[in-house]
TrEMBL record:
PANTHER family: LIPOPROTEIN YIAD-RELATED, STATOR ELEMENT OF FLAGELLAR MOTOR COMPLEX. InterPro entries: Bact_OuterMem_StrucFunc (IPR050330), OMP_bac (IPR006664), OmpA-like (IPR006665), OmpA-like_sf (IPR036737). Pfam families: OmpA (PF00691). It is found in: Cell outer membrane. Residues 1-19 form the signal peptide. The chain crosses the membrane at residues 32-51, 63-82. The keyword Cytoplasm does not apply. GO terms for cellular component: cell outer membrane. Residues 104-221 form the OmpA-like domain. CDD domains: OmpA_C-like. The keyword Repeat does not apply. This is OmpA-like domain-containing protein.
């Protein structure tokens, strides 16, 4: 039990590692460290349950500590991979109007409709090609991700019209990425219509935020 507590302490320390962000002045916990900590914790508990009947205490403890190390490597590996991809996307998309957000191991790109498409159109605006080219370059480099392209609208117009427009806009972005070399097997396209607002549709500014395409990059376990 003492060795188990030591291993769990190591996992907690791994997940608690943080770095100083000079832009915000705050300490930020690395996603890699979080992944490593979670992986280590899962490895410890799984090994403890599998080996709790082992009579050789030394052998049991060695297996538990080995599982902690292995779990940390797996969890940290995914986190590191997505950390690197996120950093490159932030660099490429700075000043473009596209927001880069992190949700666990997923990386989300939020593309406002007013810069991605011409008004009332589902065709990608030519002025946005350069931005999508930058996105495609990074997605091609980090090819161990599923690329989910989701279209969204505001609540103006009929629900069926909005659903169709969201699907068409998501398909346009997906098709453009495919034309830039992203394999179709990695692409998943979906339209949510007006069903997933991120702001109030009672105001013009809220409607503008809701008209968007989101690209979510989901790591694929090897």
């Amino acid at each position: 039990m003492k060795k188990l507590m030591v291993a769990l302490s190591v996992a907690a320390l791994a997940s608690g590692c943080s770095t100083y962000d000079p832009y915000t002045g705050e300490q930020e916990t690395s996603k890699t460290a979080i992944g490593a900590g979670i992986g280590a914790g899962v490895g410890v508990l799984a090994a403890y349950l599998d080996n709790r009947d082992e009579k050789d205490v030394k052998k049991r403890n060695q297996r538990i500590l080995a599982s902690a190390a292995g779990g940390a490597a797996i969890g940290g590996g995914i986190g590191f991979y997505m950390d690197a991809q996120e950093a490159k996307l932030r660099k490429q998309l700075r000043g473009t109007g596209v927001r880069v957000e992190r949700d666990g191991d997923n990386v989300n790109l939020i593309m406002p409709g007013n810069i991605t498409f011409a008004s009332g159109s589902s065709a990608v605006a030519s002025s946005f090609y350069e931005v999508l080219n930058s996105v495609a370059l990074v997605i091609k480099e980090y090819d161990r991700t599923l690329v989910v392209v989701a279209g969204h609208t505001d609540s103006d117009g009929s629900e069926s019209t909005n659903q169709r427009l969201s699907e068409q806009r998501a398909s346009s972005v997906s098709a453009y990425l495919k034309s830039r070399g992203i394999k179709s097997v990695r692409l998943e396209t979906v339209g949510f219509g007006e069903r997933s607002p991120i702001a109030s549709n009672a105001t013009a500014s809220g409607k503008e935020l809701n008209r968007r395409v989101e690209i979510t990059l989901v790591p694929v376990s090897q």
